[in-house]
Amino acid sequence: MMARSFWTGQATPEELSRWEAVADEAAETLAVDALERDRANLDPHRELQHLRDVGLVNLLDPAEFGGGGAHWETAFRAIRVLSRADASVAQVLAYHYINSGNIGFAVDPARQPELYRRTVAGRWVWGDSVNPVDPDLTLTALDDGSYRLDGTKRFSTGASVGDVVLASATVAGGPLDGRPVFVLLDHDRAGIRYHGDWDALGQRLSASGSVTFEQVAVAASDILGELSDEPFSTLITPGIQLAFGNLYLGIAQGALRKARELTLARNNSWFLSGVDRYAEDPFVLRVFGELLSKVEAVEALADAVGREFDAVVAKGAEVTAEDRGVLAQRIARLKVVSTEVSIEVTTRVFEVTGSSSAKASVGLDLWWRNVRTHTLHDPVDYKKLEVGAYYVNGDLQPISLYT
Acyl-CoA dehydrogenase C-terminal domain: from which residue to which, for each copy (predicted)? Predict the structure, then answer.
């Protein structure tokens, strides 16, 4: 199978501006009750419906099939913007982009038009049950050519709220015996059980609970394709890492914006400061200056790597292992700095907002809880190792679902 890319060229300033405005408006809507919804800890059905209504769900789907026809750089920007207000919902959207992106990256080109038309017509949100550190699900081949899916996966982001679930499994028996594959199942397929057991410190509305598959009937047509080391099809993994970098960046930006708002609302000043307002305190201004500078440096790198991602994707079947590896370690650099800066920003904003900002009713902890939770997804020390190994020795990491 020769991989074809529907994503060609680069995002224009007009495209970026248009969709950033859409994401900004959606973020404003989410911001109104983000803290209350976080505390309620309910799956974000209503929130995702809003993203469907404004077009963000189908942003990446090719225009020829009724989608938004936008580029990956634009999608990563949308994730960043939403993360400033509600990183949980932004995470579900990010995983949706990656999961549905498999149509263009890993599905036989002959099947792509039908899948695109169906996902656009249904405005499907794609959840997943892929977690590679859990034992594989087992897809047992049956005598009639169909299959049976069994097993449990944790950390199945978006599965409980999606219209479809993308699951990874290893085939037992039949012509695909021993091979890892992706299957696509409708949300309500008999035998799928959503546990609703996501109980993390942050990202509480990311719908990342466990899913059990008990004798789930799977048709041969439900198999999207095999997991392989073909470079183009594996761009999905650098893509999700780039989505993470933008998620963390957006959280840092949101925390900084909230801290500025709280600081401007503070009365009086510290008695030794010699100024009338906390917003004029030189130590307060120094912290804001330091944090903003770091955030804007991360943003510059995120923007640059977003364009690089589209440039590699546009090569389609001509993408080499070297292309893919170099892109992955560039994204690893973003993962390193976005992780460290976002944790620093969401922690240190309390220094400039004062003791009153620690009240539960203020909710400034939301940004820290979210980024502290998601940055544990995979160890950032290994991303530092990737960057160092390439810079010093020219070594690229082997292809995996984390690198």
Answer: 243-378
